[in-house]
Amino acid sequence: MKKFTTLVAIDFSKSCYAVLAKALDFTQKMNGELHVVHVVESSFFSKKIDLDSIKERGFNELIKNFSVIKKENYHCVSGKIKVEIANTAKILNANVIIMGNSGETHFLNDLLMGSHTKEIIKYAQTPVLVMKIDHEIEYQNILVLTDLSEESASAIKKIAEFFPNSNINLINLFYLPLDNRINTYGFDEEDVKEYKESVEKQSRKNIDAFLKSLALPKNIKITASAINSSLNPKLFEEEVADIGHDLLAIHATQNVSFFAFDILENSAVDVFVLK
Predict the structure, then answer these.
(1) Topology of domain 141-274, per CATH?
(2) pLDDT score of 106
(3) Which end of the chain is more exposed for a tag (fewer CB within 10 A), N or C?
(4) 216 and 154 in contact (C-beta within 8 Å)?
(5) Entry pTM
(6) Which segments of the chain are extended strands (E)?
């Protein structure tokens, strides 16, 4: 069986060391192997730069605080950040890429959602865990957005493998488009009430059936619910406020939707993005 592999992207900022410490602890609990990647942006330097020397100095700096990291597990490459991190993860067949939210590359900090973060998520075929607050990577309650697709089912099964001891709460967002057009369309209150009830009932029925179809092991603690949503990312936190969670998991398409990025940007907790 393939060993669980974590890839941590670092920029040698103070905050990246905090992320690395958490990632190392998480990897050890998974009985896995941790790799570290640092990308030297080629646009910043002349062709005379000695990448081997940069790698050597970087590794010597790294092991001052993380002596357990093997030299062969430190990858220093030159190129575009979005490409090289994704390529390194692919070569290693990594299970997850872990990133922080600050530092020279401004992961999630300068943008709010800097371009590096977006592009890494777009390029990588590997799940990406974005740490937004400083705490252990040990989540008690995971909130998972699902569109009830086969791809989402695969992502949920992967989440259950990563975090088998967590409480997993699936939510499917449904939207009532008539809310702002009731009077214009000439519906009376009874028609509207009946319509809303039918949508809510069908949404609950759909996600209950989806949950049953997952056929997860009995030890996995998982529930599911349907939520009437405005589909406005800025209001999302309010809409799920009653569902306690310390990790938000999003299954995204290959291109990654604006909605997923906006949810990621506005989230107050760490976000796990899977494709």
Answers:
(1) Rossmann fold (3.40.50)
(2) 41
(3) N
(4) no
(5) 0.84
(6) 5-9, 33-41, 74-79, 96-99, 128-130, 141-145, 167-174, 221-228, 247-251, 270-274
